[in-house]
Structures are given as C-alpha cells and as structure tokens.
Amino acid sequence: MQIIDRYIFRQIMIATVFIVGILSVLVLLTQSLRYLDLVMSAGASGLSFWVITLLTLPSFFEVIFPISLVAAVLFVYHRLVMDSELFVMKALGFSPLRLARPALILAIILGVTLFVVMSWIAPYTKANAIVMRKDIKAQMSSLIFREGVFTEAGKGLTVYMRERDKDGNLLGLVIHDARDPEHRPSTIIAARGVFVSTDSGHQVLVYDGSRQEYDEKTGVLKRLDFDRYTIDMPEPTQAAPTRRQEPDELQLQDLLSSSNSDDARALKRAYTLEVQKRILAPLLVPALALIALVSILSGSHDRRGMTRRLMAAAGVVVLVEIFFLTSYNLAKSSPVGFGLMILSVLLPILGSLAVLGKDHLLQWGRISQDNQTEGEVA
Hints:
With 378 residues, the protein is of the alpha+beta class. It contains eleven helices and six strands. Strands 1-2-3-4-5-6 form a six-stranded antiparallel β-sheet. Strand 4 (186-197) and strand 5 form a beta hairpin. The relative contact order is 0.10.
C-alpha cells in the first residue's frame, strides 16, 4: 500500500478497534445481568461469572463487526472532508474508488475474521457456556443440602452433610436411600462428595466411603467399601434430558456433515440455513462499509458538514440489516428467504461499486479532457 493508503487504513483500523471495544463492553454489561442472579443464587465464584459472560461475547461479533466498521468509515472519511484532506487527494487525481481502497481492504480482513469467528470460535464458546450454565444450576441445586441437618432430598432419600468447604465439596456425608421398593434400603457414608450435572440428570459423586445394607431376613449387615460411588438424584432435581445441540452450537465441519446425514428434513434445513448464514453474514461487512463509502465519497462535498449524508447512510445500513434478518427468518420456512438473503448482500455491494466506479470514470474523463485542453493550448 502507498503512504496515503496506509494513513487512511491505520486511522480506520484504530477507530474500528476502539468502537468494537466499546460495543463489546456494552454487550458484556447487558449479558452479565442474565447470569448475575444465577451465579449469586448458586453461590458460584466471581471467576465463573466472568467466564460464562465472556463465553457469550463471540456470538455477538456478527453484529458488532459490521456496525463498528461502518461507524469508523463514516468518522474517518468525514474528518478527512472537514480537514480538506479529501479535497487535496482528489486534486491529486485520486478517484472515489481509489480512496475507498484502504477501507475495502480492512473490510475484507474483518469479513474473513468474522467468518472464522462464526464458523469455529462462536459455536465453541456458546456450547461451553451452555455446559457451564448447567454446572452452575447443578451447584445451585446442591444448596438444598444444609450443613448439620438431615434433609429429605426426595421421597425415600435423606441426606446429611457435616459441612461444605469453600470449593463446594460436601464433607461428612450420610445418605439413606430407600427409593426403590424392590431393593433393600441402603446407607452410604462418605468422607467427601460433589454435586454434578450430566446429560441424564444431576448426581452426587461420593469418595472414600462405604455402602451398607441390612438384610432383615438373615440379620446380616452387608458392607461395600468404595473409592468412588455415584448416586442419582430424584426426578424433581434432575436436569433436562439429553438434548440435541442447536445449529449455532455446531462448528462448520459438523454442520456440513450433519446436513448430509439422514436426519429429519426440518433439521437438515436448519443445518443448511446455518451454513448459508455463516457464509453470507461476513459479506455484510464489506457491503455495509461500501454503503458508508458511497455516502461520503460520491458526488460533491461541503466542508460545512455532511449531516444528511451521514444520517442517510446510517438509515440505509439499518434497513439492509433488517432486510437480511427478515430474510433469514423467512428462510427457516421457505427457500425464497435464502434468495432474499443473497440479494440483501449482493445489491449493496454491486450498487455501491457501480456508483463509485461511475465517479471513477467521470473523474478520469475530466482529467483526460483537461490534459487534452492543455495540450491544445500549448
């Protein structure tokens, strides 16, 4: 890149990073409210709160990246107009399409980054956030066990816990299980236990203890010593049954393999639509950036301000985003929606390039005419 390209590129990149940071903080603040009550109710650590909040952030980058770049482009190029730098560049022969090149390069880089985030990073973090939320809910369920009290955790299940340490371990456990009428009641004594959540439900893992059963017919007490033993919790405290991961929790390669499987037709449509979204959504980054560039670089300029152009660009960007999201929702039930998704991306790109290219040709035509006039005068 030339010096002017590097100058504009650096200014837009700094502004974009700054705006991405601000929007990310705002998203974190709003998302933290969703998990604050859950974490506090479960007695989880502050680290768990921040980790689960940060894990939700990459899912919002598909909105943050395009908006940040549009705001940065409008800010930087408007400042170039107000400082008369843009007029000097045009006087040197830079066409609108040529002046837009640094922003387009950054838009392509940001689009590729967004594709990587949506295809691999965001699904991974979202899936882990869901698992972590289940673990926190399991920890919250373990609060029904009170220290030094025999607690009825369910019909036929009584639990005693001496104390709970700072890591959430249950110490000094005594569990009497008489839930199954076909089997003899058993009493489990363990030095330590922990409450966990699995796909099939909540369980208590106990360590270093014994399981005792008393046979009334023979009068024999049977004892089994163990290093580790698992106790399923009753239905009222069980987690949700095993669920299938949503399409937005699957990485790109998993979506592609799932869409070719023998799953139900509706499920295959959901997988295919998610793949299409991950391909088209990153294209919104250069599409929306081009809309901003057209509003600033096309036509004549006024150093007194370009408020109307900025507001018009912001309005068009919002309309394109709404059109894309509406088309995506329509595509869930009709294949027409996918065609509209393509149009919502391609029309701004092709239309903006046509406008910038037209100004490019007109400017070169004027330069050629001026050179020809100077030659005739000479």
